Amino acid sequence: MIGTKGTVVAVNGNMISVHFDGAVSMNEVGYVKVADKRLKSEVIRVRGDISQLQVFEITKGITVGDEVEFSGDMLAVELGPGLLGQVYDGLQNPLPQLAAQAGYFLERGVYLDPLPQDASWEFTPTAKEGDKVERADTLGTVKEGAFTHRIMVPFNLYGTYTVSSIKGAGSYKVRDTIAKLKDEKGNEVPVKMSFRWPVKRAIDCFEERLKPSEPMVTRVRLIDTFFPVARGGTYCIPGPFGAGKTVLQQITSRFADVDIVIVAACGERAGEVVETLKEFPELKDERTGRSLMERTIIICNTSSMPVAAREASVYTAVTLAEYYRQMALNVLLLADSTSRWAQAMREMSGRLEEIPGEEAFPAYLESTIASFYERAGIVRLKDGSLGSVTIGGTVSPAGGNFEEPVTQATLKVVGAFHGLSRERSDARKFPAIHPLDSWSKYKGIIPSEKVAYAHSFMRRGIEVEQMMKVVGEEGTSIEDYIIFLKGDLIDSVYFQQNSFDEVDAAVKPDRQKYTFDKLLTILASKFGFSDKNEARSWFNRLRQKFLDYNGSKWKEERFNTIEREIEDTVKSQSQGLDKAAEKILG
Ligand SMILES: Nc1ncnc2c1ncn2[C@@H]1O[C@H](COP(=O)(O)OP(=O)(O)OP(=O)(O)O)[C@@H](O)[C@H]1O
Ligand SMILES: [Mg+2]
Question: How much is the pTM?
Answer without folding.
Answer: 0.95
